[in-house]
Amino acid sequence: MLINVPETVVSDALRGMAAAHPELTVDVENRVIVRRDAPVSGKVALLSGGGSGHEPLHGGFVGPGMLSAACPGEVFTSPVPDQMVRAAAAVDSGAGVLFIVKNYTGDVLNFDMAAELAEDEGIRVARVLVDDDVAVTDSLYTAGRRGTGATLFVEKIAGAAAEEGQPLERVEAIARQVNDSSRSFGVALSACTTPAKGSPTFDLPPGELELGIGIHGEPGRERRAMMTSGEIADFAVHAVLEDLEPRNPVLVLVNGMGATPLLELYGFNSEVQRVLAERGVAVARTLVGNYVTSLDMAGASVTLCQVDEELLRLWDAPVRTPGLRWGM
Amino acid sequence: MLDADFFRRWMTATAASVDREAERLTALDSPIGDADHGSNLQRGFAAVTEVLDKEAPGTPGAVLTLAGRQLISTVGGASGPLYGTLLRRTGKALGDAAEVTEEDLAGALRAGVDAVMALGGAAPGDKTMVDALVPAVDALGAGFGAARAAAEQGAVATTPLQARKGRASYLGERSIGHQDPGATSAALLVAGLAEAAGE
């Protein structure tokens, strides 16, 4: 691993981020990343965060048109309420703050505590949960579906709505609509190695793959003999479409888990597009790359988001962040 | 009677055992979680002993309330709010008495465990820390040693269970056959109590 010691991995990365991105204010000690011009007068602020190890999510999505601030936790560990309250206070213009929370027990508990504390300080807070991963059954017997690739769609589209001055209730409703219109499915060709453990989180022999993985190096629901890119695309897209029957065109995110080359991701995307065409699903926009990663895991996920005209317009709106940039 | 010093010893003993067992906790967290339980609690309890040294709270309730707040502020993940709430609510239930009885502690701990179940939504049998805590509180009437044994037994008994809460629940049936890391660390917390009592 290209690190000094496991204990300083997150702080080291934040110092490097500060050096590379003077347009962001990076508070290394308190672990808060804020867009430099915050608070923006009259604008709803968007705050997200989660464990580190998913870069560019979330810190890489801070900037005009997307997040106002992000709170990185330890690797794969939700940040603490103190960080979120500090970030909320830094970005709130009085128009309120939307917390974008991936549905994991730790993230939910810490953001809930933070919302209570921020409200005590007079900050208006709304919260939207992202839970798009169809590999997990949403039932009483699980912690509910995980938040994965759809987080990018929620942060981008709600960020655009906030940027054009829409009020908190509206930005929240749009964020919720994006989540409800999105589904994901991921596969791993290798486990990942957390700095704390120093060895792979699970044992995946060459020649096998895990279907239905999350973004924390946790194994998936099922292990199989290696499949071709086309077979994986069939499996993943069918799994998503079992749960989402798009009447409108979709945004497609073909997302790398961290260690899969773009060459393979583009090849995989051609197969994803083939399956979508076979299923009669119209594609509005496609994004290919490493956006919601799981350290050095090899593999990919597919996220589809059904969009109406407004969501598509907000997706196309300008954005300028370290991880996503167009139109400005 | 149990005074503030007893509760400080409890926290110090737990910090030491979490430190010793950190690698084992992380190893248990690898197959069914995300391989960080040991390092997260290690960081949290180190911060707890530090703040207790610095602020030297004078009552049992104040020791636990401060310890809980510190865990919430330093651990993150689900463990931070859950262990933090356990200690904070137990501390609050103890009030501001300078000394408390073992019965007071048993009642307060039950309030703390109830708060954990309300916050995390877990019940006994879901393969979580609750599976060590509930038997420990039930056994506390028979002494700290009995509580420690009950917690350890409860942790071991999570092995054949299928997880219904927390990150291990994503694995469905594949979570069966692994001892729950949260129940294991909860047993360390209860063992720290017995150690503080010299048992």
Name some characteristics of this structure.
heterodimer; A: 328 residues; Rossmann fold; Hypothetical Protein Tm841, Chain: A,domain 3; 2 domains; 6-stranded mixed beta sheet; B: 199 residues; mainly alpha; Serine Threonine Protein Phosphatase 5, Tetratricopeptide repeat; two-stranded antiparallel ribbon; 69% helix
List the helices and strands and how they pair.
The complex is a heterodimer of chains A (328) and B (199).
Chain A: H1 9-20, E1 24-27, E2 32-35, E3 45-52, E4 69-75, H2 81-91, E5 97-102, H3 105-120, E6 125-130, H4 150-163, H5 168-180, E7 182-188, E8 208-211, E9 222-225, H6 229-241, E10 250-256, H7 262-278, E11 283-289, E12 299-306, H8 309-316, E13 319-320, E14 325-326
Parallel strand pairs in A: 3-4, 3-5, 5-6, 10-11
Antiparallel strand pairs in A: 1-2, 2-4, 7-8, 7-12, 8-9, 10-12, 13-14
Helix pairs in contact in A: 2-3, 4-5, 4-8, 6-7
Chain B: E1 2-3, H1 4-32, H2 37-55, H3 60-74, H4 79-94, E2 99-100, H5 102-120, H6 130-139, H7 144-156, H8 181-196
Antiparallel strand pairs in B: 1-2
Helix pairs in contact in B: 1-2, 1-3, 1-8, 2-3, 3-4, 4-5, 5-6, 6-7, 6-8, 7-8
Task: Explain what this protein looks like in three dimensions.
The complex is a heterodimer of chains A (328) and B (199). In chain A, β13 (319-320) and β14 (325-326) form a beta hairpin. In chain A, the strands form three sheets. Chain A has a six-stranded mixed β-sheet, sandwiched between helices. In chain A, α4 (150-163) packs antiparallel against α5 (168-180) and α6 packs across α7. Chain A folds into two domains: 11-180, Dihydroxyacetone kinase, domain 1 (Rossmann fold), CATH 3.40.50.10440; 182-306, Dihydroxyacetone kinase, domain 2 (Hypothetical Protein Tm841, Chain: A,domain 3). The longest helix of chain A has 17 residues, at 262-278. Chain A is built from eight helices and 14 strands. Chain A is an alpha/beta fold and 328 residues long. With 199 residues, chain B is mainly α. Chain B has one domain (2-196): Alpha Horseshoe (Serine Threonine Protein Phosphatase 5, Tetratricopeptide repeat). Chain B has eight helices and two strands, in the order βααααβαααα. Chain B has helices at residues 4-32, 37-55, 60-74, 79-94, 102-120, 130-139, 144-156, 181-196, and strands at 2-3, 99-100. A two-stranded antiparallel ribbon of chain B has the order 1-2. Classes of the chains: A alpha/beta (328), B mainly alpha (199). The A-B interface holds A 6, 51, 73-82, 104-106, 109-110, 113, 135-137, 140-143, 146, 194, 196-197, 201-202, 214, 216-219, 221 and B 26-27, 30-36, 38-40, 43, 72-82, 119-120, 162, 164-167, 169-172, 174.
